[in-house]
Structure prediction request, 167 residues.
Amino acid sequence: MSLLTDWRDKAYATDADPKQLNALWEDYFAREKKIYKQLLADPDTEVKGTVKELAEKYDMTIELMIGFLDGIDDSLVASNNLDEATEDTEVSLAFDKEKLYKNMVAARADWLYGLEEWNAIFDEEKQKELYKEQKKSGTIVKEKKIGRNDPCPCGSGKKYKYCHGRA
Ligand SMILES: [Zn+2]
Prediction:
């Protein structure tokens, strides 16, 4: 077992207690949004360190940090090859801005691609262009598990089914 498979087994478990799983994701989404705000506020400075150091920097558990690294990996300049990662593995969060924006669109996470920090990186026209390119490409990113009656990860305070979970 590796940290990555431990995280995936837990976060995407089909036989888990839905309440516990939702609590895990709710906590994760709130922390994820905070990290992205920080990364986007200073997008050209490479953040790197061991998994443990980054977990401390962003006030995450090792487990949630691995979840974050798993989520951002496709948007990075170079993959961290997390398969065998331990808490002492050196990782980098240097990301490709266009890829990251598009992956947030693909995940339908408008609370992430809608972060105001993006406005200093891409003007409105560029954001629209990236959005359209992504929608046209049809790439679908695995959606994260979230209960219909749970608070929406965007932080609106509404239930997911009345907010971003609307069919
Ligand atoms: Zn929402």
